[in-house]
Amino acid sequence: MWLLLILLQAAALPAQLCEAPGEAAAVRALSARLLGLGAEAGGGARPQDAIQHRYSRSTEVEWPETGRLALYLLGLRATCPPPEPGPQRSLVTWLKYYLEEDWAGSRRHGHPLTSYYQYSLGVLALCIHHKRVREEVIRRLLVAEQHGRFGHAGGSAADTEAVAVLAFTCLERERLVGAGLVAELRAATRGARRRMVEAQGQDGFFGNVYSTPWAMQVFIATNTCQTQPAYGRAMAALLENLDAFTTAATMAQVLPVLHGRSYLDIASMHCWEEPDTLTPIGPEPPPKMPGNKVVQLVVECHKPRCPQRRLYDQVVPVPAGASLLDVLRVAAAQGHHNFTFDTQDTPQGPFLSRVLGLEAQQQKRSYWQLLTTPNTSLQMGE
Ligand code: B12
């Protein structure tokens, strides 16, 4: 729900430079679908009450929640809360603390306890709240960017790179760092933008469809959206593929861009009442495909965790339109081959957390990767 808040106010921002050409109806429909998801997930407690409760309960941190708190604070600010001292003040302090924990973790382990993606979100959210961050904390991100340390095993670094560069641009724009560091951040931003343009795919995407909105925010935030042809190509590709954005998290990442906005605009929003004219649209059931298919479901786990590499290899008959999640459910229901799995709900959808009793361990940076033969990483499992 907190992701949603950033978007609803998009219309209440100052003059627009990078607006999506045409397609206003499709963009509005996407906003209405996100509103529908928010209404579904909203349930009882208001998100701000739940968050306040969580952070007032204890002073002990089990594991930093840098990214979630950063996103929440960005969303909260975008809803134009009453001026400080308000609830956001203590949350900003928590975020600063989490970021420090992540920084200390990165010195010990060579990477933040959460991830560089969450670390970047933390720096960005603090910057949007005009909070200074120690130079050493910023330098950590800068050095990671300069040395290409943003990738996850088997995953693209495009999303993280873009969020980090947005954070750099914010620090520069809000004048929260000294002249020497500004020059370095500016150089890193320029370099990253050039690499994004060079790596743009034939399909118009920077990375894939989901990382493209983040990359486009970089062009918006650095006022290069109008002069850079790669931005126009990416926008055209995005408008052709809006159906790919079905989860709250991905919708929240794409909608600002479709309004020609970046998260940096939150820092200078003009707040006023908006007419409430958007009607939520509930999620549509996926279209039914006739017929059946068989899927070869293989589970592998590497040493040292598993002495035996291949843990499962069975054929699973499913309806033609079945998602990976459907396949896993059918395999589990088959029972006689003892297949089991578990998922965790995230704003991104159900995250596969346990297979055959083996749990993904965030703290040990192990996770279940979804591949299709021979070795292609899936973009989604639903
Ligand atoms: C970091 C990251 C990961 C890490 C997460 C653990 C960690 N150490 O942080 C790891 C490497 C494990 C990971 C795995 C995968 N990821 Co990932 N991931 C990200 C990234 C860069 C940041 C997520 C984050 O921290 N968000 C901020 C925090 C505060 O929000 P959160 O909701 O708490 O985040 C959690 C969930 O997002 C979850 N998560 C991460 N990835 C995915 C993917 C899916 C499908 C789901 C349901 C959940 C999920 O882990 C996050 C940390 O706990 C995003 C980029 C983006 N644009 O969002 C891609 C992203 C979410 N991942 C993506 C994908 C495709 C995957 C994989 C399916 C890749 C694969 N083929 O195996 C797997 C998930 C497999 C599974 N077991 O279900 C896509 C999702 C696209 C979509 N359909 O919505 C994204 C958008 C990247 C992209 N541009 O394609 N990912």
Description of the structure:
With 382 residues, the protein is mainly α. The chain has 13 helices and seven strands. The strands form three sheets. The chain has a three-stranded antiparallel beta sheet, covered by helices on one side. A two-stranded antiparallel sheet has the order 1-2. Strands 6-7 form a two-stranded antiparallel sheet. A hairpin with a 2-residue loop joins strand 4 and strand 5. The N terminus is likely disordered. The site of cobalamin has 37 residues, from helix 4, helix 6, helix 8, helix 12 and strand 4.
Strand elements, count: 7
Give the SSE string: HHHHHHHHHHHHEEHEEEEE
What spatial form do the alpha-carbon principal axes imply? globular
**Mean pLDDT rating:** 86
**Strands in their spatial order, largest beta sheet:** 3-4-5
The CATH architecture of the largest domain would be: Alpha/alpha barrel
Fold-level CATH name of the largest domain:
Glycosyltransferase
Q: Which CATH class of the largest domain? A: Mainly Alpha
Rg over CA atoms, rounded to whole Å, is 21 Å
**Low-confidence segments:** 1-15
Give the % helix.
40-55%
Number of domains: 2
Q: What hetero molecules are in the model?
A: cobalamin
Structure keywords:
382 residues, mainly alpha, Glycosyltransferase, Ferric Hydroxamate Uptake Protein, Chain A, domain 1, 2 domains, three-stranded antiparallel β-sheet, two-stranded antiparallel ribbon, 13 helices, 7 strands, disordered N terminus, binds cobalamin
